[in-house]
Structures are given as structure tokens and as C-alpha cells.
Design a protein that fits this description.
The chain is of the alpha/beta class. 58% of the residues lie in helices and 7% in strands. It has helices at residues 3-10, 15-41, 48-64, 92-103, 110-133, 138-151, 153-161, 165-180, 184-194, 204-209, 216-240, 248-256, 264-272, 279-297, 302-328, 339-360, 362-365, 368-385, 388-395, 438-443; strands spanning 413-416, 431-434, 451-455, 473-475, 481-489, 494-502. The chain has a six-stranded mixed β-sheet with strand order 2-1-3-6-5-4, with no helix packed on it. Strand 5 (481-489) and strand 6 (494-502) form a beta hairpin. The longest helix has 27 residues, at 15-41. The protein is globular, with a radius of gyration of 26 Å. The N and C termini lie far apart (95 Å).
Length: 503
């Protein structure tokens, strides 16, 4: 009996393919979990300010129909506090997602947001595998996915540490895969839907068109998909939350229609003053055009050429966006805006290398064992690098224990820092006001205030209030006394809650 006959008896028709696909799915999920552990092994969740506001906005959107409301300015002489205007946080889809999870029983804390990001990040890895699989062997596509997920720290760090980037990347990468497969309507749907997570995906719109003379089928498919998904998403959000305040499209429309106030030389100066934040843009300019030239010289295949051109066009579009932002909102451009360029670089590079080797080296096409070993080594090295105990501790480090706010009732007035929204559901109905200058507070009468919440995270404690951090009691000039009621310590934060005890 031949080897093929033995194999046919051992694996019925289609069984081997199903086993192989199951192994690939399991390995990609393992890569996502290891990347998640790597991220939290190095420190707690980073994008805390945006993250907490999205959690607060999500819960408020589900329960009250509008997003997060900033604390209102505190006035000791005011006889009443006017309701604050909801803050227009951009992505209502992220708010809806997080609010839905909290409504289903998830913790209203950063750990819930981190797990939501993990789902989107894992989806992005599956999309990366699919993109690489278009042109190279499944084994090497899996190795490339492992490399990007486990050894490119900027990609996993930004995707797993901020509220919207992972979802933008998920739908952007699915759109790129769909373009490579000729499914232009699906690509348009993903791009239109992805805009409601983060506007930087707009940089992929010109890139999705492809060459200067795209086919009519491509143009019509993209336009149909984008229009349908964008209009339906906007309409659905409007109908579900008519009192939500400024919509995602309204927020970005306001940002992108601001008058350009700087001269070109002034905009260039702003960019030069923020070279660190623009480092991935400068890198992408050099790398994308270098890969484009290499693809032409090496006569790369269609997938490698498509992704490389996509990378070039996205880089140029993001450069225009960066200069526009520099001239409207000053230095409001972060290196987070360029995470998709980092991913596109590695995709273009791997597709180019894999395409050339597959066409010119017969051994590369049959080196499944080398590819499997490469993936295995990357996974093992990453697993040994993770400090598992530290990762678990950092994963929960930003979470507030419910008990710290159990005494804060509905209608209570709690003083918080403008930069530290309090998301605990126990004080969801509390009225939040900002800290005045410490001297003003001490000299005045603060009997309308019920609680003071000091939080040593980012800008959580106003500088002039820091002297009161370790005291047990704060008394103002009118004899109003606040005593420390609760404290909370974690690797990420240290918090104090003071309660008015007299009068």
C-alpha cells in the first residue's frame, strides 16, 4: 500500500483540511492571548482617560440616551447646579458596545474595555492571516501573523491600550482582504462602518481605489458598500439615540471643517516641534516608496503590488491629514494615528518577500515544517517573556472596587478632577463638579459638596491640592469638614475619597 493510500485511509476527504484550519484558528487565538499578556506584563492599561470616558459614555448612552457628561465648574456661591452638556466623544459604536456589555453584567471598569479590545485585536490577526494567505503558503502566512502579533510592539501596544484603534484596524484589515479577493462591496461596507470607530480609516479610502484607472466594478462596489454602511449606521444611531447629542459624523465633520489658521511654514513648524509623534509617518514615507520600487524591480505578484500601493497612498493621505490637523488643532496629532501604517508596512514586506521566494525558490513552497517551527519558536519565546503574575495584576490595576463608592448616593455632589471621570455605577447619578483652586476652596464655604475624590492617575490631582493627599481631614474657612472615608491602592493608581461630616 502506498503512502498516499495510507493517508487517504487515515484522513477521509476534507478531514485533513478541517484539522489544519482548526490548528490555524487555535494558533491565532493563542497569539492574540500572548500579545495581550505581553502588553499587560509591561504595565497597566495606558489610554485611561479616553477609556474611562468611553465606558462612562457607553453606560450613559444605554441608560439615559446620551453620552458622558463632563464635570461642571464648581461655584461656591451658586444656588443651583445646571445640568452639564454631554461631551461629544467620537465613536458612538464603541460607546454602544461597552454600554451593552455593562448592561449584560460586565464590570464598568477598564478590564472590560481591555477584553473588548482583545476581541478586535484577535479579529485583526485573522484578517492579517487572510491577507498574507492570498499570496503565500498557509504555514508562512501563520508565521507572518505570529511575527506581527508578537514582535511588533507598536501594533499590539496601540491596538490593546486605546479604546477605538483596535476596531478601526479590524474593519480596515477586513476591507483590505476583501479588496485583494475582489469583493469590493464588502470592502466598502467595512470602510464605511469603520469610520464610525475612528476617522483615520478615511486614509484608506483613496488607497482602496487602487491605480489611477480602476475598473467600473471596483468603483461602483466601493461606493455602494461605503454609502450603504455609512448611511444605515448613521440612521440607526440617530433612531436609537435621538438625544445622544453630537453624532460621530457631526464630531468629525466639525473637526475636518475647521478653518486652516496656520501658514504652511507655521504648520511645518508645528510638525517639526512634534517629530516624535510623527516618527511613523516619516518612516512610512521612506519605507513605502522603497517597497514600491522593490516590487517593480522584482516583478512582484498582484497581491504584493496592491498592498504596497495601498501603503504608499495611505501614507501620503495621512501626511495631508497630519498637516491639516497641525494647522487647525495645533499639536493634536498623536503617534496613535499612524498605527495602521505600521501594520501595512509589515504586510507589504511579508507579501513581497513571500511572493518572490515562492516564485523563485521551490523549497520555500514546500517548507511547511520550517514555517511551523518558526511559528512555534515565536510563540514559545513570547510565552517565556511574559511575567504572568504581573500581567494579571496590571490587567486589573485600573479597576475601581465597588466598595469605595458605596456611600455615594444619587444626587450627591462629588468633586472630581476634570481629567478623571468616575465611572463606577454607584455614583452614576451623582452630580460631578471640578476642583476649584485649593486656596479658594479652603477660604470659602463648601457645605453644598458631599464628597471629594482625589485620584493619583495622570492629571487626577490638581497640583495645588497635592499637599492634602495624605491628610485624614480637610476643613475649610467656614468650618465645613471632610474626613477620609475610603482609600484604594493598585499598581496603576492611588485614590482617596473624603466625605463631608459637618455641618
Amino acid at each position: 500500500m502506498s503512502a498516499n493510500e495510507i493517508e487517504a485511509q487515515t484522513f477521509p476527504a476534507g478531514t485533513e483540511a478541517r484539522i489544519s484550519a482548526s490548528i490555524q484558528v487555535a494558533v491565532i487565538i493563542l497569539i492574540a492571548l500572548l500579545a495581550f499578556a505581553q502588553t499587560f506584563s509591561s504595565g497597566p492599561y495606558e489610554g485611561i482617560a479616553d477609556g474611562m470616558r468611553y465606558l462612562a459614555s457607553g453606560h450613559s448612552l444605554i441608560t439615559e440616551g446620551h453620552g458622558y457628561s463632563n464635570p461642571i465648574r464648581y461655584d461656591q456661591l451658586a444656588t443651583s447646579f445646571f445640568p452639564p452638556k454631554p461631551y461629544p466623544y467620537p465613536s458612538q459604536l464603541v460607546q454602544l458596545l461597552l454600554g451593552g456589555l455593562i448592561a449584560l453584567g460586565a464590570s464598568p471598569n477598564i478590564s472590560t474595555l481591555a477584553l473588548a479590545n482583545l476581541i478586535a485585536f484577535a479579529g485583526s490577526l485573522f484578517a492579517i492571516f487572510g491577507i498574507l494567505r492570498v499570496a503565500i503558503d498557509a504555514g508562512w502566512a501563520l508565521a507572518g501573523t505570529a511575527f506581527i502579533g508578537l514582535t511588533v510592539p507598536q501594533f499590539r501596544y496601540i491596538s490593546l491600550n486605546f479604546a477605538t484603534e483596535a476596531w478601526m484596524m479590524l474593519f480596515g484589515l477586513i476591507a483590505l482582504w476583501a479588496i485583494l479577493k475582489g469583493r469590493y462591496v464588502l470592502a466598502g461596507v467595512c470602510l464605511g462602518f469603520g469610520f464610525f470607530f475612528r476617522a483615520q480609516i478615511s486614509a484608506w479610502l483613496p488607497a482602496s481605489i487602487g491605480n489611477p484607472f480602476p475598473s467600473r466594478r471596483r468603483i461602483m462596489g466601493l461606493l455602494l458598500g461605503i454609502s450603504a454602511s455609512a448611511i444605515l449606521t448613521w440612521l440607526a444611531l440617530k433612531l436609537m439615540f435621538p438625544k445622544a447629542g453630537e453624532s460621530t459624523t457631526g464630531f468629525y465633520g466639525r473637526v475636518f471643517t475647521q478653518k486652516y489658521t496656520l501658514s504652511p511654514s507655521q504648520a511645518i513648524q508645528v510638525v517639526s516641534d512634534n517629530l516624535y509623534d510623527f516618527k511613523w509617518l516619516w518612516f512610512s514615507f521612506a519605507a513605502s516608496f522603497a517597497l514600491l520600487i522593490a516590487a517593480r524591480i522584482l516583478k512582484a505578484g498582484a497581491a504584493a503590488r496592491e498592498v504596497t500601493a495601498f501603503y504608499v497612498t495611505s501614507t501620503v493621505t495621512m501626511a495631508l491629514f497630519a498637516f491639516y490637523m497641525a494647522g487647525t488643532v495645533g499639536d493634536g496629532v498623536s503617534d496613535r494615528y499612524f498605527v495602521h501604517l505600521i501594520c501595512l508596512f509589515w504586510l507589504a514586506l511579508f507579501l513581497l518577500i513571500g511572493d518572490v521566494l515562492t516564485r523563485r525558490t521551490a523549497s520555500f513552497r514546500h517548507s511547511r515544517y520550517i514555517a511551523a517551527t518558526t511559528s512555534g519558536v515565536l510563540v514559545l519565546i513570547s510565552a517565556f517573556q511574559v511575567d504572568w503574575a504581573n500581567a494579571k495584576q496590571n490587567f486589573m490595576a485600573e479597576d475601581f472596587p465597588p466598595a469605595i463608592f458605596e456611600s455615594v448616593g444619587a444626587g450627591s455632589i462629588i468633586m472630581v478632577s476634570y481629567g478623571t471621570p468616575v465611572i463606577s455605577l454607584q455614583i452614576d447619578k451623582a452630580r460631578k463638579v471640578t476642583f476649584p483652586p485649593y486656596e479658594t476652596f479652603i477660604a470659602g464655604d463648601n457645605q453644598k459638596v458631599d464628597f471629594l475624590f482625589l485620584d493619583a492617575r495622570n492629571d487626577g490631582i490638581p497640583e495645588d491640592w497635592q499637599a492634602s493627599w495624605d491628610v485624614e481631614e480637610i476643613r475649610d474657612g467656614s468650618g465645613v469638614t471632610f474626613k477620609r472615608e475610603a482609600s484604594f491602592e493598585s499598581p496603576a493608581r492611588s485614590s482617596r475619597l473624603f466625605r463631608r461630616v459637618s455641618p
